[in-house]
Inverse folding.
């Protein structure tokens, strides 16, 4: 057996405010893991941000490789309102599930139903009145764009960093076995981001996305944005220096937190 890729957490990388949940999911036909970052609070109905990871990763990478809680803490000190950060596994399907539905397992419903229920059931500061936001990087951005568009009654805002935009974009990141499996999705839109956004544009919640100039997905993101403009789909697209890296995502996830905070303040 050959191991081709590894994501390894650094030593002493977890903050004391982390909770890990393992949930049995009928949608996964098995167990899934969720990391939750929540500071002690007397508040109720605290809004939730779901952060979806990319290929090869799992629930811990946003924190232990991206130090997302440090970004959040710094912004809190500057006046950012309170959120609970929720980081689920994608379900562990080959090199990445794409957060897609399949006949054998529904990785989409795992996020939209089970992850949210697990957090509300276990974290007292959250409730079914908490607004829920969705964000992701790379494959996670792909998931955030698709799920945010498909479920406007669940999510109040969407943010995507360096997003995959269709199943063909996975080619440079996964092996043939994973790509072939992704192509078997039962998704009504064939896993295409623009088709999903366009078909649901009448109910689309606030949307932002960004990509680095040196990212291999920059061309695909630029094409998606041109399609959004042509279809008159409201969005914000930001271009930054940088590539497909944790350094980039650590720096620019602050844009996501600020975007969601502005939505909260407008309500």
């Amino acid at each position: 057996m050959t191991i081709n890729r590894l994501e390894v957490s650094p030593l002493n990388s977890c903050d004391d405010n982390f909770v890990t949940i393992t949930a049995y999911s009928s949608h996964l036909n098995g167990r899934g893991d969720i990391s939750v970052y929540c500071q002690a609070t007397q508040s109720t109905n605290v809004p939730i941000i779901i952060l979806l990871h990319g290929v090869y990763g799992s629930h811990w990478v946003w924190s232990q490789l991206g130090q997302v809680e440090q970004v959040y803490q710094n912004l809190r000190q500057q006046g950012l309102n309170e959120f609970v950060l929720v980081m689920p596994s994608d379900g562990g399907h080959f090199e990445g599930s794409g957060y897609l539905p399949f006949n054998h397992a529904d990785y989409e419903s795992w996020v939209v139903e089970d992850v949210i229920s697990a957090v509300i059931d276990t974290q007292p500061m959250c409730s079914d009145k908490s607004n829920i936001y969705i964000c992701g990087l790379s494959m996670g951005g792909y998931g955030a764009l698709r799920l945010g568009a498909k479920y406007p009654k669940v999510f109040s805002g969407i943010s995507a960093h360096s997003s995959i935009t269709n199943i063909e974009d996975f080619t440079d990141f996964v092996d043939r076995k994973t790509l072939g499996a992704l192509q078997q999705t039962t998704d009504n839109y064939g896993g295409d981001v623009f088709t999903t956004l366009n078909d649901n544009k009448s109910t689309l919640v606030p949307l932002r996305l960004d990509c680095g100039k040196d990212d291999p997905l920059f061309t695909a993101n630029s094409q998606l944005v041109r399609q959004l403009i042509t279809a008159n789909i409201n969005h914000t697209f930001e271009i930054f220096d940088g590539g497909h890296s944790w350094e980039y995502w650590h720096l620019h996830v602050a844009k996501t937190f600020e975007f969601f905070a502005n939505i909260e303040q407008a309500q």
